[in-house]
Design goal:
Distance between the termini: 28 Å
Strand content: 5-15%
Largest sheet: 7 strands, parallel
CATH architecture of one domain: Alpha-Beta Barrel
Number of helices: 11
Radius of gyration: 17 Å
Strand order of the largest sheet: 1-2-3-4-5-6-7
Structural class: alpha/beta
CATH topology of one domain: TIM Barrel
Shape: globular
Helix content: 40-55%
């Protein structure tokens, strides 16, 4: 929950100036809902994609304050974050609700960026594998594995977000490999092709080392994305 019309315009224009026109790395930005339309217009002549920070599980109706997948599509979004750690832990979104949001996003043509991850207590009690598997199973039980062919997974260790504690590339890789192996048990081709992003204090200083890991396909970038030069460096590391 950052930005203003003026700040966003400056940030997007600076980012577009810094990104090379020919690149392999795909770039997605997810501004607050009220700025989606203006950001869409700023991005219209670029290949930078637009996404919502969340999406309602409902299609329409008396759900004041919610934003549906069709509304996101209507203002130019192609993606939506689903199950972000802050939605889970600050606003109590359950695994079942996250699964419904995943389904709603796909049903209306959005690609869900499906976030999973454990808290510090869960990691210290050696429950990382259990928690991440449970979060993935909640979606798999509703959609089946084929839905992951049109989705992105993001691993967010909650204990490494804004705490000053960082997951090492090896710790991140271990969980990414777990996720890919879990999906591979159901469909090897989908597991091989699905992109698994890392989201735990990704910065220009650690991006290259993280992205060098075999199962880390990119980043879900938080605070560092508010600085165009640093975000551009992270995108360059993804190349």
């Amino acid at each position: 929950m950052h930005g203003s019309r003026v700040d966003n315009a400056s940030l997007v224009r600076s980012l577009l100036d810094l990104l090379p026109p020919q690149r392999q790395a795909e770039v997605l930005v997810c501004p607050p809902f009220v700025y989606l339309w203006e950001t869409s217009r700023l991005l219209k002549d670029s290949d930078v994609q637009l996404g919502g920070q969340s999406v309602s599980a409902e299609a329409q109706g008396a759900f004041t304050g919610e934003v549906s997948a069709t509304m996101l599509r209507d203002v130019g979004c192609r993606y939506a974050l689903v199950g972000h750690s802050e939605r889970r832990h600050l606003y109590g979104e359950s695994d079942a609700l996250v699964a419904r949001k995943f389904v709603a996003a796909q049903a209306h043509g959005l690609v869900p960026v499906f976030c999973v991850g454990e808290t510090l207590d869960e990691r210290e009690s050696e429950r990382t594998k259990e928690v991440v598997a449970r979060q993935i199973d909640a979606v798999l039980s509703v959609t089946g594995v084929r839905a992951f062919a049109k989705a992105i997974v993001a691993y967010e260790p909650v204990w490494a977000i804004g705490t000053g504690r960082n997951a090492s590339p090896e710790q991140a890789q271990e969980v990414h490999a777990l996720i890919r192996t879990k999906l591979a048990a159901l469909d090897g081709m989908i597991a091989k092709s699905v992109r698994i992003l890392y989201g735990g204090s990704v910065k220009a200083s650690n991006a290259r080392e993280l992205f060098a890991m075999p199962d880390i396909d990119g980043g879900l970038v938080g605070g560092a994305s508010l600085k165009a030069d640093e975000f551009a460096q992270i995108c360059a590391a993804a190349e």
